Write a sequence for this structure.
């Protein structure tokens, strides 16, 4: 069979909408011309184009949290009592409210130095009592017969944010005019129309401008209205296990995320680990989401301080984003039960559109981990030689293998091959079914195994989770045997032999070898300590590779054939002689040496058999 064509999904042309697009192969000829007749019509798509799996949220109303039921009840209780006029000057009250809003903005600065007013603070500041005082005291409302009816309409209806904007720009006397013009909270935020010099605002809800805003005497007043409307309309982010939430935002939108103080990204060990473990070719920011702006249920592992990892792709390429999204959702969908705790959960994604550069910036949101496996080794040195660690180790290794099994899509029987040309990266699952796709992680190493100790009880060391699918790819059954090693990124130390052996191909077995390297390093750490992992073991296996470089890989190439380094065999033999090497470690080392680190990929243990062996090892009394 010839080399597989590489397929990329081109984003839909303007006006075609999500779900449309053109598949083309690497020669830019129409893909459909290369497929058998019974494969012409795609039945399922992945990534953003799988509308059954991904919900693209663009409507401004869907991004706002509804009024809290307790607030609504509070409003009705307030209005049930007779109003007693306040002796306080209403202008002083408006200034006090405005100052509290200003304090909120100062306390909630985002990554891009803009500010927002959290949902809960809006309700705490614009209490029904205060709204009632404003309506009953301001001159512009004195002709109203049912003032409490207006209060209820503002608070329980959909005009509270509109009132807040007007308080912010000192134009509360425009409220009735705006309401008569059909304006409400669903109209917010309102962008300034870029193609006009008069600062006219555009209502995305009604898809037109409002004449009552055009009556503002100065352009700066309309711009102030727009700015405040965005500060009061930060998205409300949710998680839905059935439909991933993708937020399509404009460059004016403000994410409700406060930047966590610390060194700039890339200038600390924590930053370097984060940028590596959550995905290369990206920046990862430690952020704090305002608690009144998200609801992720019980998925993932919440950090006790409310920290999250916001991963910003450096590439603005739509296809790069969609491929990573598809890989993450594919793996999450395949991971069930115990394994779901050991794979990083994608909570939400964001697309920020910038018309000035005609490209979008893409973000992924994850739980913030306390570190990686590497940082676990550095933090938990007190466990070196501690036999009580074996039970936790066996549980975590089993969980990681389950997670990798979901990436490989190998639960149950292996699917049959597809007819026709091999199509790597194809986002359509045709009549042969979803099972014919498989994934490959492609970059397993200690820095891509996250450590969550958050919420761990006394004596519990937390959870390890497989992360970074940035190099992972989705493939078809046939294309998995047609991957040119020289064109695939890999981590040098943990790479499989097939990357260096001419004429061999890359498959899911390459992940097994890399994971075996990591497991062996963990056993080394536990029996001999951190220095053996960072210095002793790498020096022991160092030798000149086929490229004439000194390499600390776990294999050698002799006469164009992969072999296990003698230094690896000797190292494992010495570990077996260690005083703390019990039955579990001996059995584990057998699996690593003869199964996972088998030089020939065709003879290497498969993920299903590996999961079964790890399940057996858990039952050994440690």
């Amino acid at each position: 069979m010839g080399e597989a064509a590489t397929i990329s999904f081109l984003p839909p042309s303007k006006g075609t909408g999500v779900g449309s697009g053109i598949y083309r192969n690497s020669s830019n000829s129409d893909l459909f011309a290369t497929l058998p007749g019974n494969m012409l019509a795609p039945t399922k798509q992945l990534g953003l184009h799988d509308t059954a799996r991904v919900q693209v949220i663009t409507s401004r109303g869907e991004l706002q949290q509804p009024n809290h039921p307790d607030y609504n009840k509070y409003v009705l209780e307030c209005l049930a009592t007779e109003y007693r006029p306040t002796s306080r000057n209403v202008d002083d009250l408006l200034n006090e409210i405005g100052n509290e809003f200003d304090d909120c903005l100062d306390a909630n600065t985002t990554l891009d130095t803009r500010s927002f007013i959290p949902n809960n603070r809006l309700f705490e500041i614009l209490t029904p009592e205060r709204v009632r005082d404003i309506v009953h005291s301001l001159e512009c409302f004195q002709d109203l017969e049912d003032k409490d009816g207006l209060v209820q309409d503002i608070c329980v209806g959909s005009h509270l944010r509109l009132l807040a904007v007007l308080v912010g720009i000192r134009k509360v006397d425009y409220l009735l005019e705006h309401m008569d013009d059909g304006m409400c909270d669903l109209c917010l935020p309102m962008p300034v129309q870029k193609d006009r010099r008069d600062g006219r605002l555009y209502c995305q809800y009604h898809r037109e401008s409002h004449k009552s805003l055009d009556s503002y005497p100065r352009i700066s007043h309309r711009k102030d209205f727009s700015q405040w409307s965005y500060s009061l309309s930060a998205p409300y982010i949710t998680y839905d296990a059935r439909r991933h939430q993708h937020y399509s935002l404009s460059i004016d939108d403000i994410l409700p995320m406060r930047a966590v103080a610390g060194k700039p990204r890339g200038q600390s060990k924590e930053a370097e680990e984060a940028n590596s473990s959550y995905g290369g070719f990206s920046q990862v920011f430690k952020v704090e989401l305002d608690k009144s702006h998200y609801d992720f249920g019980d998925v993932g592992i919440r950090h006790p301080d409310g920290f999250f990892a916001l991963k910003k792709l450096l590439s603005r390429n739509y296809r790069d984003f969609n491929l990573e999204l598809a890989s993450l959702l594919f793996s999450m969908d395949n991971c069930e039960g115990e394994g779901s705790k050991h794979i990083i959960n994608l909570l939400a994604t964001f697309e920020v559109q910038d018309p000035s550069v005609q490209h979008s910036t893409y973000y992924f949101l994850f739980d913030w981990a306390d570190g990686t496996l590497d940082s676990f080794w550095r933090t938990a040195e007190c466990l070196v030689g501690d036999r009580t660690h074996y039970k936790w180790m066996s549980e975590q290794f089993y969980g990681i293998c389950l997670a990798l099994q979901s990436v490989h899509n190998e639960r149950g029987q292996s699917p049959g091959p597809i007819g026709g040309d091999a199509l790597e990266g194809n986002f359509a699952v045709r009549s042969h079914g979803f099972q014919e796709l498989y994934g490959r992680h492609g970059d397993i190493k200690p820095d891509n195994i996250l450590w969550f100790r958050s919420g761990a009880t006394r004596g519990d060391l937390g959870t390890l989770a497989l992360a970074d699918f940035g190099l992972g790819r989705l493939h078809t059954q046939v294309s998995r045997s047609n991957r040119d090693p020289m064109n695939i990124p890999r981590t040098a130390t943990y790479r499989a032999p097939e990357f260096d052996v001419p004429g061999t191909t890359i498959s899911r077995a390459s992940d097994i070898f890399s994971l075996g390297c990591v497991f062996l390093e963990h056993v080394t750490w536990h029996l001999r300590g951190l220095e053996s992992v960072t210095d002793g073991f790498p020096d022991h296996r160092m030798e000149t590779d086929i490229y004439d470089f000194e390499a600390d890989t776990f294999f050698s190439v002799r006469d164009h054939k992969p072999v296990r380094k003698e230094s690896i065999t000797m190292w494992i033999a010495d570990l077996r002689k260690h005083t703390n090497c019990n039955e579990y470690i001996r059995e584990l080392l057998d699996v690593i040496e003869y199964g996972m680190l088998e030089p020939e990929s065709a003879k290497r243990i498969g993920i299903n058999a590996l999961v079964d062996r790890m399940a057996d090892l858990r039952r050994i009394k440690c």
